[in-house]
Amino acid sequence: MCGIFFIGLNDTNDGNNASSDLYRYGNRIETLRELAFRQSGKQRYRGPDHTGLVLDNEAGFVMVQERLSVLCVKTGSQPFLSQDETVVLAANGEIYNYQQMAAAVNQELKVDEKPYIPKSDCDVIIAFYERFGVLKLMETIRGMFAFVLYDKKNQYLLVVRDPIGIIPLYHGTDQDGNVWIASEMKCLVEKCPDIKVFPPGHMHYGTRCKIDPQQYHKSQWMTLEPHMPVCLERLKTSLEDAVLSHLQCDVPLGALLSGGLDSSLIAAIATKVLRKRYGSEYRLKTYSVGLVGGPDFEYSKMVADYIGSDHTEVYFTIDEGLNYIRDIIYHTETYDITTVRCSIPMYLLSRHIKSEGIKMILSGEGADELFGGYLYFHQAPSCTEFHWETVSRIQQLHYSDCLRANKATAAWGLELRVPFLDTDFVNYVMSISAEDRMPKAKKNGTTHMVEKYILRQAFNQDYLPAEVLWRQKEQFSDGVGYSWIDTITKYAAEHVSEEEFSMAAERFPLNPPPTKEAYYYRQIFEELFPHKSCAATVQRWIPRTDWGCSADPSGRKQSAHVKRD
């Protein structure tokens, strides 16, 4: 996972115009190069392998990329320049169809032009943009990405974020009207009082002096309720294709394995693909995390034994987890309760994984949003409401699971990939009728309703042990050990007095915290990110209380949860 950073100077500012190499902020004067390198350094852990910087005072911009080298290790350092050096690119993410895009570029070459050989998956963005233009680029590109491209000939800035928001991106404006863009908010907060989330599926194509995101990605399921019946074979093949596309990698890789359905399926499919590639003796490295006695370990070991992975169990203590509350709020840049609870175990696990030399990890994020896998979906009052709730959850992923998964792993220079959120797979699943995607009873006489039923049915062959294939959803922060949530909730509440909490709405008028736990996280967040605009970048993850569900995001609080001893 990489980090990108950009400053576009406002031409109308005296002393901060495009011809000046000095940037004035209050009484401080420093070169634009020094400023950009220093501010981008706040996210340098995202890309510990290389820092590249391009400064163009005449054009009025500076661009930085912090690189984690995963593909094309020797040739992929950024920012990239076009052949004539008039187009500059800094990108974060993976372009999964880059070879097809490179082939399309080569088909358009003139007789006297040399064949195009991409320096990396992201390098193809420049070649495709120059050959086909921005609209064709956005129609064609597939992957998880956020990038900034500056076209000096046309004086156009192109800013893009992937359709789901797997990769984070923020933008802001400083007191002199200069535009700032970064992968993480902490790079902007010192200078920009007005910070916004760059929305998923949007792009800006125009002046460098003002960001105006326009939606480029639209699918029918966003506006129309689907009625297509499921084809289990197509569902199975589509997920296998998504996993295959996500396995392009030139460095050691692994997979998260909680023992739940989603991560287990990804690990099982990846194992089959990689054994075809490297031989039947290949063992995928898999990892699970939890407290001693956590319920996930029983099932993750079961899956690891079944697929023959090289499995590692990583244990943490409650005290150790509590130590990282402030760190995780800093890295995830949120005060959302469920994100903080879940991110700490993932943060600790990521540190261990990176220490073993792994740079890329597969994960099962996204399946619960597509298939209505959270336990509160059992209480959906109708097919229509079920569908629109899944749409809402997908469109908010960049505030919750995608944000957590990306930032908790990137904090240790680890890239996390999410095959369930492959654009083509998302579009297919969301074209399936809500009736087919809703929880159903197993066809063995039982009346117990099972979430993600069609996904389980599609892989009801030799992929997973039955105990895991039909295991009820256990949310990550529950699965690591039930006492984790109970303790962190109590610990946080003990740090907030009744008097403080009674003033919560007055102190935090925007999204006032509903519990003492929420207040504690919000208080830390405000210390780290003091601007009001920072608080506005956060959305809380809560179940549908209007369906009669508990407002607490823990799956154990929902009536559908089957209690374990």
What does this structure look like?
This protein is of the alpha+beta class and 565 residues long. It has 2 domains: 3-215, 4-Layer Sandwich (Glutamine Phosphoribosylpyrophosphate, subunit 1, domain 1); 220-557, Rossmann fold (3-Layer(aba) Sandwich). Helices cover 36% and strands 18% of the residues. It has 23 helices and 21 strands. The strands form 5 sheets. It has a 6-stranded antiparallel beta sheet with strand order 4-5-1-11-10-12. It has a 6-stranded antiparallel beta sheet with strand order 6-7-8-9-13-14, with no helix packed on it. The protein is globular and about 65 Å long. Residues 14-19 have low confidence and may be disordered.
What number is the mean pLDDT? 93
The assigned structural class equals alpha+beta
Any idea what the CATH superfamily of the largest domain is called?
A: HUPs
CATH architecture of the largest domain: 3-Layer(aba) Sandwich
Number of helical regions: 23
The CATH class designation of the largest domain is: Alpha Beta
**Helical proportion, percent range:** 25-40%
**Percentage beta strand:** 15-25%
Radius of gyration: 24 Å
End-to-end Cα distance, whole Å, is 39 Å
* Major beta-sheet overview: 6 strands, antiparallel
Low-confidence stretches: 14-19
Strand order of the largest sheet: 4-5-1-11-10-12
Q: Can you tell me the overall shape?
A: globular
- Which fold name is given in CATH as the topology of the largest domain? Rossmann fold
- How many structural domains can be distinguished in the coordinates? 2
Count every beta strand, where a strand is a DSSP E run of 2 or more residues.
21
